[in-house]
Amino acid sequence: MTTEKLSPDLIPSATATQADLGARVRDIRKARGWKLQDLADRTGLAVSTISKMERGAISLTYDRFMRLAQGLGMDVGDLFTPDTKGFEAGSATLTKSGETKIHETETYVYEMLATEMTGKHMVPMTGEIKAHEIKDFREYVTHPGEEFLYLLSGVLDVCIKGRDPVRLTPGDSLYFDSALEHLYVSASPENARILVVCWKPG
Predict the structure, then answer these.
(1) Pairing between strand 85-86 and 117-118?
(2) Which of these, 159, 149, 166, 155, lies nearest to 192 by C-alpha position?
(3) What's the pLDDT tens digit per position in 83-129?
(4) Are strands 156-160 and 166-168 parallel, antiparallel or unpaired?
(5) Per the domain annotation, does 135 fall within a domain?
(6) How far is it, in rounded angstroms, from Cα 109 to Cα 19?
(7) For the segment 168-177, what is each residue's pLDDT rounded down to a tens digit?
(8) Cα atoms in the Cβ-side hemisphere of radius 13 Å centred on 130
(9) How many domains does the chain contain in total?
(10) Are 125 and 195 in a shared domain?
């Protein structure tokens, strides 16, 4: 059985969005006749973590959330928006202000964009970085693909394991291999706001 410690990135959540998301994951799993252990085997997440997520009790970090979607064989957008359409030549989708899907952890708040379209290679989102120190995290984030980061406001340190932090001020951007273990930390009194686009292989 996979084991996993509860970290600051897996936090109590009482938002309707997280409860709805957890219920959707549970419904998908049960419709396939999978037990919690079956999904744990496919994602590498602990049974207890999946169970708490399905109940809306915790929120997953981005990398764990991607592992969950991949384990289900689904696009991230499918988890947020049941009635999605696949990307094809000539496709376009509009996300109006105030219609983003919120995914929140103790350290980040992500506003997921273009969730109505699945099968896309990029995952766009805006975010607010609540963490102000590296010690706010238990571990670094890592996931396959490439990542583009643009700082909208505040000051941000991008901490890549084994390297000096890269400091960004508004208007700065950074493009990097997201398989590198990394963290975003607000370096200003206010929470930094970012635009992020992740490219995922496959």
Answers:
(1) parallel
(2) 155
(3) 666 677 788 888 898 888 888 888 999 898 988 887 788 889 999 99
(4) antiparallel
(5) yes
(6) 16
(7) 999 999 999 9
(8) 11
(9) 2
(10) yes
Segment 3-18 mean pLDDT: 41
One-letter amino acid for residue 73 of the chain: G
Residue of 95, 94, 103 whose CA lies nearest to 17: 103
What residue numbers bound the domain in which 179 lies?
A: 121-199
In-domain check, residue 56 = yes
Q: Read off the amino acid at residue 100.
A: T
Residue 116 within any structural domain of the chain? no
Single out the residue in 31, 62, 80 at which a domain terminates: 80
For residue 2, is pLDDT > 60? Answer: no
- Chain Cα centroid distance, residue 129: 13
Q: CB within 8 A of 17, min separation 6: which ones?
A: 101, 102, 103, 104
Q: Last residue of a domain, which of 26, 53, 80?
A: 80
Sequence-ordered list of residues with C-beta below 8 angstroms from that of 26, at least 6 positions apart, any chain: 54
The CATH number of the domain holding residue 155 is 2.60.120.10
